[in-house]
Design brief:
The chain is of the alpha+beta class. The protein has one domain: Nuclear Transport Factor 2, Chain: A (Roll), CATH 3.10.450. The protein is built from 5 helices and 6 strands; from the N terminus they run H-H-H-E-E-H-E-E-E-E-H. It has a 6-stranded mixed β-sheet, with helices on both faces. A hairpin with a 2-residue loop joins strand 5 and strand 6. About 4% of the residues have low confidence.
């Protein structure tokens, strides 16, 4: 009996040690976080020739994607992509001289194939009539590594109320204009 207990204890200890050993090292975590941040920054480069396609590349090619925003939940890739296209058609393409500015990006690497990013951002721009305007918010995204790519499988976006976005960034110089907002 004692031998069986020792054997079980050894197996449990091996499993625990094995699980801990599979956790990425500090340098691996830094590399994964840097890769995810670079992909997100590149996707949100509003000067790229096909912004909508750049944004779509952050998501998996197949499977469910869950996105929460404006009090609603979307769990359909097609609906999420329709939202990206609507945002770009009605908002993004009407911004003059927009610059997506990341205020803070925090990435927690959970494993070699899972990470969570929480970021805040603002986008100073001019409206079609030339008025200075800012949109902004916070975004939390869960990334999973699939087929060598880091893709978003769940996200939550929170927009800053317009009055807060405008007042919080009233001192900013508008991109490419040199004039204060």
């Amino acid at each position: 009996m004692r031998r069986a207990v020792n054997c079980v204890a050894l197996i449990v200890a091996s499993l625990i040690t094995g699980c801990r050993g599979s956790e990425p090292s500090a340098s691996e975590k830094m590399a994964i976080a840097a890769k995810i941040e670079a992909e997100v920054r590149a996707a949100y480069d509003l000067k790229s020739p096909d912004v909508e396609r750049s944004l779509e590349r952050l998501y998996p090619d197949t499977g469910r994607i869950v996105s929460a925003s404006s009090g609603a939940i979307i769990a359909s890739r097609d609906t999420l992509f329709a939202g990206i296209h609507a945002f770009w058609h009605f908002v993004g393409s009407n911004m003059k001289n927009p610059k997506w500015m990341w205020d803070r990006i925090l990435i927690d690497v959970l494993s070699r194939d899972a990470a969570v990013m929480t970021a805040t951002y603002h986008v100073p721009h001019l409206t079609p009539t030339g008025m200075a305007h800012v949109i902004g918010g916070a975004w939390t995204a869960v990334f999973r590594k699939e087929g060598g790519r880091w893709v978003i499988v769940q996200e939550h976006l929170s927009d800053l109320p317009p009055a807060i976005a405008d007042s919080a960034h009233a001192h900013m110089v508008m991109p490419d204009t040199g004039r204060a907002k």
